[in-house]
Structure prediction request, 482 residues.
Amino acid sequence: MASKTPITVAYGDGIGPEIMNATLRILEAAGAALEIETIEIGEKVYLRGNTAGIDPGSWESLLRTRVFLKAPITTPQGGGFKSLNVTTRKTLGQYANVRPCVSYHPFIETKHPVMDVVIVRENEEDLYAGIEYQLSPDVTSCIKLITRPGSERIVRYAFEYARRHNRKKVTCFMKDNIMKMTDGLFHKVFDEIAVEYPDIQKEAWIVDIGAAKLADTPEAFDVLVMPNLYGDILSDVAAQIAGSVGLAGSANIGDKCAMFEAIHGSAPRRAGQNLANPSGLLLGAVLMLVHIDMPETAALVHNAWLRTIEDGIHTYDIFTEGISTAKVGTKEFAAAVVARIGQRPNRLKPVAYVHRTGVAPAARPASAGVRAVSSEIRGVDLFVTWPSRNPEALAAAMRPLAADGLSLEMIDNRGVKVWPAGSAETFCTESFRCRFLAQDATGMKPILGLCGRVAEAGIDIASTQTLRTFDGQAGYSLAQGQ
Ligand code: NAD
Prediction:
């Protein structure tokens, strides 16, 4: 007999244990060769005083099995408790979140009878890097971090996913008409990598109109890839419009460990009543079976589940009079799926999965190392706090402090130029950005000298940003009106 694949399982809180039992029962009946290690996470661990919600010893299991099937957990209310999902994602470098959103018309009510999209969301970067600052009493900022290796990894993952699952098109959502550098880099990387996949169509949409189109006409899309924030929002929208957030599973993919789960929470009010729908976790487990290269078992489970849905055997949350044939509990639903193992749906499209071939999607991109790029320092942006909010007075105070070839180029407030020749209409906060530029390349010494003189003049510097060129191109954006 083939050896079993070890996986780590957490039963979670609320409805977690019931839906995990149902899921594991179905996997076992389908003959999934799994060796299950159980760890405890969630409420009990939090309430023992562990703010991470996971015991240090549990990481050992996760790093060894590298596969985590996780039921939802309850995060206790109140301060101090950290999101276990964010901790797991960051600790294990899970850079891709994959969420298939499918409608099951006419068996589950939906406004979108033809919908079968997969959202591939970048999981580590963007505004979710968690780099935030308070610059002054009234002004805060959050850094949007988009990197070439991070973008290459997620875009390549999306194309590899499309190829492996016989998908026809990959669409990129971003907003590079506004964020020309960050989303511009994501878009550029998308275009570069798309060339390597001539068998797959590619298209790029600005996220606002793309989101509207997705909500209105999801059948226009296939695989979607996008930075973290857009992906977080749109994957929930897509799951909801497909019919129910209760049906979608999700995968968090990393090199060290991949995590599979339902997208819903622990639904504490439904716990212990044999009511919960185990479908989201079961479809998460199907993603896991594909990931650990058990495509035949994945298809057995998925097709049996589709047949159960098609036969109208529904839990309370998807039960509709006239469509459903039986309202069942969690255990009975699992039994119905088990009874259909080996069967395929008649009207819904059956699934087929294939063994892993070609480049492992998780492979690190070639450019993860340092690239040879020529770079010059051209100046500095000083973010200063100027309580009088008068840009002319700030310019008068700043200009005499410039030396060593640097001169004050402009001052802006919230990205809008207010000096020279600002508009009296522009609302100013107390946080201004003063841009000093040199005609030619300069260095850190003149910049540090400038900072020293500004500080001696009693002007509060909240932060500084060196301005550089990379291969002759400015590595900084212009202010509005500059
Ligand atoms: P929820 O997803 O638990 O519940 C939202 C609604 O959907 C409720 O009405 C619930 O009864 C219903 N529902 C959810 N899953 C269902 C299922 N499988 N079958 C039938 N009905 C289902 O969201 P919530 O109420 O906002 O959160 C409850 C708890 O879950 C919170 O502590 C939250 O922090 C946690 N949570 C955990 C995760 C996770 O572990 N990944 C995700 C989201 C929320």
